[in-house]
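REQUEST FORM: STRUCTURE PREDICTION
Request ID: SP-0412
Submitted by: Lab K.M.
Chain count: 1
Length (residues): 49
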Amino acid sequence: MTDLNPQLESALSQFASQPGVTPSQEAQLRAAVASDARLLEQWNQKASR
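STATUS: Completed
RESULT:
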């Protein structure tokens, strides 16, 4: 499995810092992205652009 690249990590952290976003929502998003290697790779690529 691929790890989050720094750009994707930053994007997810920005999401988590938005008003109204709960820690549970952040955890669910991270779990969803990490659960699918192809999705994770695509998000890593898009985040690095």
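NOTES: The chain has a mean pLDDT of 93.
Reviewed by: T.R.
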